[in-house]
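Slide 14.
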Amino acid sequence: MSRMSGIRRAAMLVLTACALAGCTTTDGLDSTLVDPSKYEGYNCKELGKQLQDLDKRQKDLRNLIDRAGESTTGVVIGALTYRTDYEMVIADRKVLQRTMAEKKCQLTPALTSDQIIR
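Slide 15: predicted structure.
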């Protein structure tokens, strides 16, 4: 009977984690958790650096979520630990891109090369 209660407990934990993961959506985060004026004091160069940092953080978190998803318990850990941070980075990135657009900053860095075209 204790084995059955352990399975039930694990099932409830997974259901709870799924329910909590469903509560966090990217649509509402940028308006509620990220200050829209967060990047207003930054110039275009600083905004570009922040964008690069957020892109790296987003990639790192996505890798952690994917790695955690390789096991049953990892899915729960990934949802509870990394998902909120991941969605916060996405919301932060939206605010940053909006600020860059308002300041008419270049969203993608210009391609430069140290090679001479012949």
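Speaker note: The mean pLDDT is 77.
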